[in-house]
Specification:
113 residues; 91% helix; rod-shaped; mainly alpha
């Protein structure tokens, strides 16, 4: 009977060891999967960093060109534009002044009568 008990105990021990081996294989597989995902993420991050480093920034070029459109290289051009603006303002004010001057003598004549 002693022999039979020993066989049963050794069988239980073997089953326990076999279960532990299965659990270790699962843990090992999960570790490998996570390591592969980590390596892929690392390579992707490095590739993106290299891409951003070597890609020129087109926005800076756009800003420089945009500013150039509204600046004058010659002072003569700037003076011409300023004179044109002054003339336009004077033309708008001139009809109002003429109308006021014409109305003033008529009012004086009415008062004199």
């Amino acid at each position: 009977m002693n022999r039979l008990e020993e066989l049963l105990q050794s069988n239980k021990i073997a089953e326990m060891l076999h279960q532990k081996e299965k659990e270790e294989k699962k843990k090992k597989a999960a570790t490998i999967v996570l390591a592969v995902v980590g390596v892929i993420a690392l390579v992707g991050g490095i590739a993106y960093a290299v891409y951003r480093y070597f890609t020129p920034d087109y926005l800076d070029d756009f800003d420089d060109d945009f500013d150039d459109d509204f600046t004058f290289d010659d002072e003569e051009e700037e003076d011409k534009v300023a004179e044109a603006v002054k003339d336009a303002i004077q033309e708008e004010e001139a009809p109002e002044e003429e109308a006021a001057e014409e109305a003033a003598p008529e009012e004086e004549e009415e008062k004199a009568e």
